[in-house]
Amino acid sequence: MHYAILPLLASLATSSVAAETVLGAYIFSRHGDRTAKSTPPANLTDLGYQEVYTSGTYYRNRYISSDATRKIWGMNTDLVKLSQLTASAPIDNVLQNSAGGFLQGLYPPVGATLGTDTLRNGTSVTSPLNGFQLIPLQVVTSGTNSEDSAWLQGSTGCANAAISSNDYFTSSSYLTTYNNTLDFYKGVSPMVNRTFTSSQTTFQNAYTIFDLLNVASIHNSSSNFQSADLLTNETFYQLRTLADQHEWNLAYNESEPIRAVTGSIIASQVTSALNTTISGGFKNKLNIQFGAYAGMMSYFGLANLTAASSDFYGVPDYASSLVWELVTNATFNSSSLPSTNDISVRFYFHNGTTSNTSVPTEFPLFGTGVSPLPWTQFVSGMEAFAINSQAAWCKACGNSTGTCSSEALGLSSGSSSNSSSGSGSSSSGSGGMSKAVAGVIGAMVTLAVILGLELLVMLVGGLRVVSKKRLGGTGAATGNAATGTKA
């Protein structure tokens, strides 16, 4: 995203009453600045490390510190209590390292005083690195190596999602933009011809071309940035606008919800985690997950956040974060906790690194124009598109082998994964999709993997298109033919 987040709609009540208490929160964050996707393996840069650490520090000041602005009820202030915190990231260098940097800001070293234990024999042992706190990171294999994948659906393992996204490349919307930008990308070619051939330098590779030049504009010296004079502010803006359009249409389509499968999984994980916070007596208070921008964009579409601001059509910047807060105005104590009837959810988004001078903005979910949403209304809205079990995922994705086989799903020979619902809450043992289930899902093989590899080859191998016109707003005005929306 390349904008300043708009203020919340005037009709939306944003101020918290004095009695409001934050009971828990779920943070979904993008990684920090990294090297380019087109030159794998991608790695978190020092700038990226600083970005996520700064964001982690902000959320410490928001939720954890003794003088936190929205302190989570009962959250440990200095020494981390692992039962209160769950952190996760896929198997990916950039995402896991980003999570680690964020957690260092969230719970920094505690110094020699708090970081020293006295043993029975009287010996004092001080923790290394000035009381550095070790916080385990759960592994989510859904999204494995997503930062090395040029294909947006390349790490989902969902066959139907990949097919749906691939259909965009034959749509009239795509073909119109592709043809109208031939000359524009021809003019860009001198800046990227060490990485992309002339036939690859087209709208087909809009995001990876922008990504390469974005990285170069941040890190490359003039001597290492070929034809840098061609990257004017206007050209860079058009590259970014085209990348936004390209990725939005691969991440979401109103008439084909399966295209946004990652957003459906995020919805299930968030709802399940917050429900666990409530049902567990608010012991597990803070959940943090790191993921790629694709999941964010999919969720934006499914949750109709574009009704609150058209800015949600854009690719979120590095270190962007989504936050769902559990809040209550009820009077309660540890022996008389608030019921779900007294609990609501506030949703916040921040584009880029959060800090004390750049804070998250509250937005209404599901096109309601209302925030916070009562818990039951929030759950109903999320479950309208959440995928809550492995069997439901298999059915929605059209996968039937590997971990989607009847044997793997524990079905009888006469059963099929198609008997499972594709969305909604499960009141049985399947419950909401856990991170472990999402990990299993991310390991889908056979057809989904083969198809994903074929699509990756097609995209990176690219059509040869040499640009013919200077775009001048075409990319921003051309939308998804199925939805009529503008990217």
From TrEMBL:
Alphabetical keyword list: Membrane, Signal, Transmembrane, Transmembrane helix
Residue ranges of the TM segments: 436-460
Pfam families: His_Phos_2 (PF00328)
Compositional bias ranges of the Low complexity kind: 412-428
Disordered: region residues: 412-431
Signal peptide boundaries: 1-19
Similarity field: Belongs to the histidine acid phosphatase family.
Name of the featured protein: Acid phosphatase
Species this chain originates from: Exophiala sideris
